[in-house]
Amino acid sequence: MNDDPSRGTTLVVGASRGLGRGIAAAFAADGAPVIAVSRTAAEFPEAANGPGSIRHETADAAEAAVSAALLERHAPRNVVLVAGATPLLRPLHEHTWESFSANWQTDVRITFHWLREILRAPLKPGGRVVVISSGAALAGSPLSGGYAGAKATQRLITGYAQDEARRSGLDLTFTAVLPKITPLTDLGRPAVQAYAARGGQTEEEYLRQLGEPLTPEAAGAAVVSLVRAEATTIAPAYLLSGAGLKELP
Question: Where do the TM regions start and end (predicted)?
Answer without folding.
Answer: none
